[in-house]
Write a structure and sequence with these properties.
CheY-like_superfamily, Homeodomain-like_sf, transcription regulation
Amino acid sequence: MYKVLIIDDEEPLREAINILGDWKGLGVDQVLEATDGKMGLEMLRGHKIDLALVDMKMPELNGSELLRIAESEFPDLLLIVISGYNDFEYTRQAIRSKVVDYLLKPVNRTDLNSALRKAVDVLEAKRKKESEFINRNITLNMSLPKLKEKMYLSIIERSFKNQSNEAFLPLIGADKPGNHFAVGVLRMLNLEQVRHHRFHEDRDLLHFAVTNVMSENSDGHFEAFSFASPRSEREFIVIFTLKGSYGEDAAFLSLHHMKKAVSTLKELFGMICASGLGQPYSDCLDIAQSYELATAALDGIDLLSLKSSVVSNVGYTKPAAKDSPSLTGRMPLIRSSLESGNTGHAKSILSDFTRKWKTSEKFSLGEADRTIQEFIILLGDIAQELNAVPERLLSTKRQGLRGLGIGSDFATFGEFEAVLSRILDVYAGEISRSLAGDRGSVLENIKAYIDNHYFENIKISMFTDKYFLSREYLMKLFKGQYGYGIHEYVQKVRMDKAKDLLSDPALKIQDISERLGYKDKNYFSKAFRNYYECSPSEFRLLLAEGEK
């Protein structure tokens, strides 16, 4: 069990940390509080504290001074810095004191518990005494890369403010003129296969392996820093920094490094990777532009000609957009097949359509990604219209293909087609199960409506619109269940009712005609004759003769 001390002069923040921390899950049995740096130092001297969370700006004794004292007096104490200020002096002292992590105000639950988990991992590693390296360096190794990653992501997302965050620029080499920055985006095309067979589903270990390979051969002049992309679990972002040189050199070295890295990943782990490389820039804020070019280069790689790992930098000049055939026009046919339970025919329609892409000049990775997302949305719309949207299908909005239990690996066009086919199988199965349970009650409802409203103008479109069934399919179902088409059944009910009404001599044929929904007496008489081969009047005579 561990003991934690919160040192902050703001009571609301201390209270928030107390509430948001997953103390029990982290193995923390005691959380103490100090209202300023001076009180915090006294408590550090009076208690055996494992971890302290320190605000950088406090009265009496500020965070920087407290860190310097703690470094000297409590070498085993782990520290997490809390700050709402972009003061590089604070950051420099925090780095010197080897803090575990940095938290910016206001503190949120996710970042807080992530930082606490890092600290607890370090404490556990120390207690187990696995290695001297872990004891002395793991906190610094864990915190600085994460800080750099956050900075790079904020630049890529265009939320980084140069002036207010100027203090952090030296951490990424952006404080010196003459440096150039380029971005690469690496996508693992067989991620799930490699993670299962080579890393036993250990995602963190796989990430470590990839980033370790990407960082190889970095030196004081050229650096490659990589991390997992928040955009996709199968993508990694690589930031290349070339110090004090020309943009042409940065472009050459970045391309060379990326090609060597994807080759090494294939050789060591069997990873098939596609990579895009952006243009180098001298301004660190242009990392965002380089990232967009790298993404465009990656998305533009031709899936039809993809044989193995590849690196592309064609994103330097974005290719002109082309009109690509869309599945939207084929969805009515696919829907009709799914309604009738003919999954094979739906697959045939899909296969005929994908053949157009296969025989085209080019079909890019970006087009493949967009097609998968479009197909899921279109099938989801069909499922919703058919009231066949169980939790399993709704989960795709949160988990993508994983929510459907479908692997998303594809490194060839054939594997891409297989992903589309598996998506169709899942939706077809859910739609079939849903419709199988509803068809019986739907047919009963339609029959009951006809039995009670036979005198109205009944149109089949009333039922197709209400139950989202095609006309042909509904007619087939109804006749298979009752032996009559819908129009035939309406006519049968009317004629059966006509016989009953004609047995009452007090009713005029005109009245009977109106009761049955015929506004024209002659039209009723003609329909009756066609059905029974005698007129209503002749039928009455036959009834009268039968009674004598």
